[in-house]
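Appendix B. One record, verbatim.
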Amino acid sequence: MAERNEKVLVLDIDGTLTNSRKEITPSTREAIQDVMKAGHKVILASGRPTPGMRRYEQELELEKYGGYLLSYNGGRVVDCRSGEILYQRTLPLMILPGLYGFAKRNGCGLITYLGSTVISAFEPDEYITLEARINGLPVKPVEHFLDFVDFEIHKCLMTANSDRAAVFEGELQEKYGDLVSIYRSEPFFIEIMPRNVNKATSLEKMLEALGQRRENTICCGDGFNDICMIKYAGMGIAMGNAQPEVKAAADYITATNDEDGLVQVIDEFIRKE
């Protein structure tokens, strides 16, 4: 059983772990590695697919220190040291025709993932291009999306400008909310996940497996999809650059991701104790 003073530091990637250039600063990397050297746990929790998290896993040396990846907004959890998949949930394929039809009618982008490739139902829009670039993955548009996707998937991502995405999020929740989880991660990204799967629900299962307590968790994020884990955590922290709704849910607001806000968190809530 874990010691009472052992912390679990849970970090979103984009806008939290990384600065505006999608880089981990040397100060932030050193502080996180100090946390792991001191015996605390570190979990990277992102809406990214697992391959899109590997760069940061390697930079932080999570395999060496025993960290974890919570990818697809909680759809898959991987032990970096062993490579073992500790938990995963997949999306029911029967929902794809409805999602495809909705996206086509409304001119939305629609993607899923196959290994290290982004699979796009239509010609990639600017948001899909951004998603692929962020993750360092190629995009493959497919002509017959519904026929092509005959494999297990962890999530779909629908894209539109922020005003339209806010409306579509509500419409999709009303239509499919009893089958899947639907929420935005960024103003222009609508995440479609297995039902009851999000960063908080998967984190709860991880803590049970690790013999850890919710009260010992420190969750840091900036986006809409971080709100659930920030509310769940013993200490929920919003970055200074976070969306207003995220700040409203947090116990503490740190500096921005361009000001090494995570170093401030580690100094205040881990190193001081």
